[in-house]
Amino acid sequence: MCIIFFKFDPRPVSKNAYRLILAANRDEFYHRPSRAADFWGNNNEVLSGLDMEEGKEGGTWLGINTRGKLAALTNYLQPRLDRDARGRGSCQTQPLRTRAGSTCSPYL
C-alpha cells in the first residue's frame, strides 16, 4: 500500500520549525528500478525520485518544483489491459514542468 503523509504549518512557532513535512513510500513493486530523489539533471527546478523501469522511465510518484507545485501518486492496482501503456508516473512529471500560473487539470 502506498502512503503519503503531509503535515502543514503555515505559521511555525520557531524559526527552526518546518512549514511542510512530507513523507511517502513507493512499495508497488520492490523489484522496480528507480532513482533516488534529486534535482533532474539539467532541470534544477524539479526535485523527485524517478521511475527507471524500461518503457516507463522518467515518471515519478512524488515530486515538487521550485515554484511550489507538488505532484503525488499512490497505487491503484487493477488488471492491466495494455501492458505496453505508458506509466501513470508521467502524469506527475508534466505538471511539475509547467509555469506557476498554469493548471494541472489537463493531466488529471
From TrEMBL:
InterPro entries tied to this protein: TANGO2 (IPR008551)
Gene Ontology biological-process annotations: Golgi organization; protein secretion
Residue span of region Disordered: 83-108
Signal peptide, first to last residue: none
Domain of life (superkingdom): Eukaryota
GO CC annotation: Golgi apparatus
Native species: Monodon monoceros
PANTHER family assigned: SER/THR-RICH PROTEIN T10 IN DGCR REGION (PTHR17985), TRANSPORT AND GOLGI ORGANIZATION PROTEIN 2 HOMOLOG (PTHR17985:SF8)
Protein name per Swiss-Prot or TrEMBL: Transport and golgi organization 2 homolog
Polar residues composition-biased segments: 90-108
